[in-house]
Design brief:
162 residues; 4-stranded antiparallel beta sheet; alpha+beta
Amino acid sequence: MQTVTKKSLKVGKYVNNTHVDNVIKNYKQERWVQNSERIGKEDSLSGWWSIEEMEDFIETAKIYGADGVKFYFGAYDKDYQEKPEYAGRQTLVMVGTKQKQTANGVNNKDIYVQTDKGSQVLGYNAMSLCPPFCGQGDTFDFGDLELGITLIDKGDNGMVVI
């Protein structure tokens, strides 16, 4: 009898509140303020997909041979018409990937599938963004958010608590 062992591809880890608070605080201070000023409105701080959507995407990716998912940072066009409130805001796109060993090391290659429109990347987007949708209409509201708040010094433009 031949035994086949499968090599684990895990690269992440579970983290605690301190880590989550710290990376979010760093993002707010080092990226969010500048992004918001550049686009002229509060940029998104988070996005949400249901577990059902994520499971469906992962199952579809597996069908096409994926062994991983890459999350690309992105931004909607300034004149995005499908959801105008998303225009200019950042987002994430999930893309199914397959790990390949190359001469230069390990590479996680995007998966493409054949559709009636030709070869297309196996991608998923259109998450619920906050802002603009943070649980209370179109205003930025942290609701029951339990993560820490951050005080940001905007220089001549004052201070902001996010």
